[in-house]
Amino acid sequence: MDAFAELIGESQSRVRTFLVRLCRDYDLADDLAQDTFVTAYQKLASYRGSGSFEGWLCKIAYNRFLQYKRDDKRKREILAQYGEMLEVESGRYDSASDIQLELEKAFSALNHGEVAAITLCHSFGFSHQEVATILNTPLGTVKSQIRRGKDKLKEVLSATIDHEHDHEHECSEEKADRKVAL
User: Fold this and answer.
1) 31 is in which domain, residue-wise?
2) Taking the model in full, what pTM does it have?
């Protein structure tokens, strides 16, 4: 048990980060991370050691996320069938960093496959092949998800930068107009 706790301790924050990026909800990510670690403990005997322990945990976390999405979809369908109003939470974060907020907004433009592939590859350092194994997805699909996801991130972030630049330019023009009027 102590060895397992040590392994979990080493991977806990990265698994949680992975889930936060997928869910875009800190509380849900915490719940799914807890489920991930419980499942990992229950299935520890099935870990073959062929890949990294962290990769194995990320695979469990991803499967937990997919199961949550399936269950959530079923719940929404049942509620909609009976005509109840569905209330969708905004998923906003209490982030101290404007950059973090912009990244979260940018990641929201990606589908969960793209988020998972980019996070595992670029944030966690897994190879494309390892990501394909973790996500149980063909290698070509993983490469496509990473490329499409990066393209979307660039597009969203450059649009944000362009918008901010335009806004600053407009503000400067307004100040200049006021000075001329004085």
Assistant:
1) 1-92
2) 0.57
